[in-house]
Amino acid sequence: MPSYDLRTALIVVDVQNDFADPAGGLPVGGADRVIPEVNAQIGLARAAGAMVVYAQDSHPPVTPHFAKDGGAWPEHCVMGTWGAELHPALVVKGEVVRKGEDGGDGYSGFSVRDPGSGQTDPTALDGLLRTAGVTRVVVVGLATDYCVVETACDARMLRYSVEVVRDAIAAVDLEPGDGERAITRMRDAGAEVV
Ligand code: VGL
Ligand code: ZN
To answer: Could you give the CA distance from residue 141 to residue 49 in angstroms, rounded to a whole number?
Structure first.
Protein backbone atom coordinates (compact mmCIF):
# COMPACT_ATOMS: atom_id res chain seq x y z
CA MET A 1 0.00 0.00 0.00
CA PRO A 2 1.41 3.40 -0.90
CA SER A 3 1.94 5.98 1.81
CA TYR A 4 1.00 9.61 1.29
CA ASP A 5 2.57 12.89 2.33
CA LEU A 6 2.57 16.52 1.20
CA ARG A 7 4.98 15.81 -1.67
CA THR A 8 2.83 12.99 -3.01
CA ALA A 9 -0.26 13.39 -5.18
CA LEU A 10 -2.87 10.81 -6.07
CA ILE A 11 -3.87 10.88 -9.75
CA VAL A 12 -7.28 9.32 -10.38
CA VAL A 13 -7.50 8.47 -14.09
CA ASP A 14 -10.81 8.52 -16.01
CA VAL A 15 -13.24 6.97 -13.51
CA GLN A 16 -16.16 8.03 -15.73
CA ASN A 17 -19.51 6.45 -16.51
CA ASP A 18 -18.58 5.36 -20.04
CA PHE A 19 -15.67 3.29 -18.64
CA ALA A 20 -16.93 2.41 -15.17
CA ASP A 21 -20.63 1.66 -15.76
CA PRO A 22 -21.55 -1.59 -17.57
CA ALA A 23 -24.02 0.49 -19.65
CA GLY A 24 -21.28 2.92 -20.71
CA GLY A 25 -19.90 3.42 -24.21
CA LEU A 26 -16.58 1.67 -23.54
CA PRO A 27 -17.07 -0.38 -20.37
CA VAL A 28 -13.95 -1.73 -18.68
CA GLY A 29 -14.39 -5.15 -17.06
CA GLY A 30 -13.74 -5.07 -13.32
CA ALA A 31 -14.35 -1.34 -12.95
CA ASP A 32 -16.93 -2.02 -10.21
CA ARG A 33 -14.21 -3.75 -8.18
CA VAL A 34 -11.86 -0.81 -8.75
CA ILE A 35 -14.05 2.09 -7.55
CA PRO A 36 -14.00 1.17 -3.82
CA GLU A 37 -10.21 0.65 -4.06
CA VAL A 38 -9.83 4.06 -5.68
CA ASN A 39 -11.99 5.64 -2.98
CA ALA A 40 -9.84 3.96 -0.32
CA GLN A 41 -6.72 5.57 -1.84
CA ILE A 42 -8.51 8.93 -1.94
CA GLY A 43 -9.29 8.53 1.77
CA LEU A 44 -5.65 7.71 2.60
CA ALA A 45 -4.35 10.62 0.51
CA ARG A 46 -6.73 13.12 2.08
CA ALA A 47 -5.96 11.92 5.60
CA ALA A 48 -2.28 12.69 4.92
CA GLY A 49 -3.07 16.11 3.40
CA ALA A 50 -1.93 14.90 -0.04
CA MET A 51 -3.30 16.42 -3.22
CA VAL A 52 -5.87 14.42 -5.21
CA VAL A 53 -6.32 15.23 -8.92
CA TYR A 54 -8.71 13.66 -11.40
CA ALA A 55 -8.19 13.15 -15.13
CA GLN A 56 -11.31 13.23 -17.28
CA ASP A 57 -11.39 11.93 -20.85
CA SER A 58 -13.38 14.56 -22.72
CA HIS A 59 -14.08 14.32 -26.44
CA PRO A 60 -16.01 16.46 -28.92
CA PRO A 61 -18.85 14.58 -30.70
CA VAL A 62 -16.71 14.31 -33.85
CA THR A 63 -13.06 13.34 -33.35
CA PRO A 64 -10.54 11.06 -35.10
CA HIS A 65 -10.36 9.29 -31.72
CA PHE A 66 -13.68 7.57 -32.60
CA ALA A 67 -14.04 4.69 -35.05
CA LYS A 68 -16.92 6.43 -36.85
CA ASP A 69 -14.49 9.27 -37.68
CA GLY A 70 -11.52 7.09 -38.67
CA GLY A 71 -10.11 6.24 -35.23
CA ALA A 72 -10.08 3.23 -32.94
CA TRP A 73 -12.84 3.63 -30.37
CA PRO A 74 -16.58 3.45 -29.97
CA GLU A 75 -18.03 6.80 -28.93
CA HIS A 76 -17.26 7.54 -25.29
CA CYS A 77 -16.84 10.47 -22.90
CA VAL A 78 -18.40 13.04 -25.21
CA MET A 79 -18.29 16.41 -23.44
CA GLY A 80 -21.49 17.27 -21.63
CA THR A 81 -22.95 13.75 -21.75
CA TRP A 82 -23.68 11.32 -18.91
CA GLY A 83 -20.88 9.04 -20.12
CA ALA A 84 -18.26 11.75 -19.63
CA GLU A 85 -19.27 12.45 -16.03
CA LEU A 86 -17.16 11.09 -13.22
CA HIS A 87 -18.85 7.99 -11.79
CA PRO A 88 -21.36 8.87 -9.03
CA ALA A 89 -19.75 6.41 -6.59
CA LEU A 90 -16.36 8.12 -6.94
CA VAL A 91 -15.37 10.49 -4.13
CA VAL A 92 -14.43 13.75 -5.88
CA LYS A 93 -12.31 16.09 -3.73
CA GLY A 94 -9.84 17.90 -5.90
CA GLU A 95 -9.18 19.47 -9.25
CA VAL A 96 -10.26 17.83 -12.50
CA VAL A 97 -7.98 17.96 -15.56
CA ARG A 98 -9.80 17.36 -18.84
CA LYS A 99 -8.07 15.97 -21.90
CA GLY A 100 -9.12 15.55 -25.50
CA GLU A 101 -11.48 18.52 -25.74
CA ASP A 102 -9.73 19.94 -28.80
CA GLY A 103 -10.08 16.64 -30.65
CA GLY A 104 -6.71 15.27 -29.60
CA ASP A 105 -6.05 11.70 -28.57
CA GLY A 106 -6.11 12.15 -24.83
CA TYR A 107 -4.58 9.09 -23.22
CA SER A 108 -2.07 10.46 -20.73
CA GLY A 109 -3.35 12.88 -18.10
CA PHE A 110 -0.22 14.93 -18.80
CA SER A 111 -0.53 15.46 -22.55
CA VAL A 112 -2.75 15.46 -25.61
CA ARG A 113 -1.66 14.53 -29.11
CA ASP A 114 -3.06 16.07 -32.27
CA PRO A 115 -3.89 13.03 -34.44
CA GLY A 116 -3.34 15.08 -37.63
CA SER A 117 0.03 16.70 -36.97
CA GLY A 118 1.19 14.27 -34.27
CA GLN A 119 2.08 17.28 -32.11
CA THR A 120 1.91 16.72 -28.35
CA ASP A 121 0.83 19.47 -25.96
CA PRO A 122 0.84 19.42 -22.16
CA THR A 123 -2.33 19.56 -20.07
CA ALA A 124 -2.46 21.56 -16.82
CA LEU A 125 -1.51 18.52 -14.74
CA ASP A 126 2.28 18.88 -14.54
CA GLY A 127 1.98 22.58 -13.62
CA LEU A 128 -0.59 21.81 -10.91
CA LEU A 129 1.68 19.20 -9.34
CA ARG A 130 4.86 21.25 -9.56
CA THR A 131 3.21 24.36 -8.10
CA ALA A 132 2.14 22.22 -5.14
CA GLY A 133 5.70 20.89 -4.66
CA VAL A 134 4.75 17.35 -5.62
CA THR A 135 7.62 14.98 -6.49
CA ARG A 136 5.87 11.64 -6.26
CA VAL A 137 2.57 10.42 -7.71
CA VAL A 138 0.33 7.44 -7.08
CA VAL A 139 -1.71 6.46 -10.13
CA VAL A 140 -5.08 4.64 -10.02
CA GLY A 141 -8.13 4.34 -12.29
CA LEU A 142 -9.03 3.30 -15.83
CA ALA A 143 -7.88 1.87 -18.09
CA THR A 144 -4.61 0.08 -17.28
CA ASP A 145 -3.68 -0.49 -20.94
CA TYR A 146 -4.43 3.06 -22.16
CA CYS A 147 -4.77 6.07 -19.92
CA VAL A 148 -3.20 4.58 -16.79
CA VAL A 149 -0.07 3.31 -18.55
CA GLU A 150 0.38 6.53 -20.53
CA THR A 151 -0.12 8.70 -17.43
CA ALA A 152 2.33 6.61 -15.37
CA CYS A 153 4.98 6.56 -18.13
CA ASP A 154 4.65 10.32 -18.74
CA ALA A 155 5.01 10.91 -14.99
CA ARG A 156 8.27 8.93 -15.03
CA MET A 157 9.44 10.87 -18.08
CA LEU A 158 8.72 14.08 -16.14
CA ARG A 159 10.87 12.64 -13.33
CA TYR A 160 8.21 11.97 -10.72
CA SER A 161 8.52 8.90 -8.56
CA VAL A 162 5.57 6.73 -9.54
CA GLU A 163 3.55 4.09 -7.76
CA VAL A 164 0.59 2.28 -9.34
CA VAL A 165 -1.92 0.42 -7.17
CA ARG A 166 -2.74 -2.86 -8.88
CA ASP A 167 -6.07 -3.39 -7.11
CA ALA A 168 -7.18 0.10 -8.14
CA ILE A 169 -6.73 -0.28 -11.92
CA ALA A 170 -8.49 -2.37 -14.61
CA ALA A 171 -7.73 -3.04 -18.26
CA VAL A 172 -9.75 -2.91 -21.50
CA ASP A 173 -7.81 -5.97 -22.77
CA LEU A 174 -8.77 -5.49 -26.43
CA GLU A 175 -6.15 -8.19 -26.97
CA PRO A 176 -5.79 -10.68 -24.11
CA GLY A 177 -2.69 -9.75 -22.08
CA ASP A 178 -2.78 -6.00 -22.88
CA GLY A 179 -3.20 -5.18 -19.19
CA GLU A 180 -0.27 -7.37 -18.17
CA ARG A 181 1.90 -5.89 -20.93
CA ALA A 182 0.99 -2.39 -19.70
CA ILE A 183 2.13 -3.35 -16.20
CA THR A 184 5.45 -4.55 -17.63
CA ARG A 185 5.80 -1.26 -19.55
CA MET A 186 5.17 0.76 -16.39
CA ARG A 187 7.73 -1.27 -14.44
CA ASP A 188 10.27 -0.92 -17.26
CA ALA A 189 9.73 2.85 -17.12
CA GLY A 190 10.63 2.79 -13.42
CA ALA A 191 7.16 2.80 -11.87
CA GLU A 192 6.48 0.63 -8.84
CA VAL A 193 3.36 -1.47 -9.35
CA VAL A 194 2.18 -2.64 -5.92
C1 VGL B 1 -9.19 5.53 -22.62
C2 VGL B 1 -9.48 4.47 -24.64
C3 VGL B 1 -9.90 5.64 -25.20
C4 VGL B 1 -8.81 5.43 -21.17
C5 VGL B 1 -9.60 6.72 -23.19
O6 VGL B 1 -9.27 6.25 -20.36
O7 VGL B 1 -8.03 4.50 -20.83
N8 VGL B 1 -9.13 4.42 -23.34
N9 VGL B 1 -9.96 6.76 -24.47
ZN1 ZN C 1 -10.98 8.54 -25.13
So the answer is: 20
Bridge partners of 162, per DSSP, are 137
Q: Which residues pair with 51 in a beta bridge?
A: 9
Question: In the chain, count of helices (H) and strands (E)?
Answer: 5, 8
List the shell of residues around ion ligand 2, using CB closer than 5 Å.
Answer: 57
| Cα end-to-end span (Å), the chain | 7
Residue 55, SS3 per DSSP: strand
Q: Which residues of 158-181 are buried (b: 16+ CB within 10 A; e: fewer)?
A: bebbbbbbeebbbbbbeeeebbee
Which residue among 57, 147, 154, 173 is the active-site one?
Answer: 147
Query: Alpha-carbon distance 98 to 35, whole Å?
Result: 19
Q: What digits encode the pLDDT tens for the residues 132-153?
A: 999 999 999 999 999 999 999 9
CB of 34 closer than 6 angstroms to any ligand 1 atom: no
For residue 26, the 8-state DSSP code is: S
At 90-128, the pLDDT tens digits run 999 999 999 998 888 879 999 998 877 889 999 999 999
Provide the residue count of the chain: 194
Tell me which residue of 188, 176, 87, 66 sits closest to 140, measured CA to CA: 87
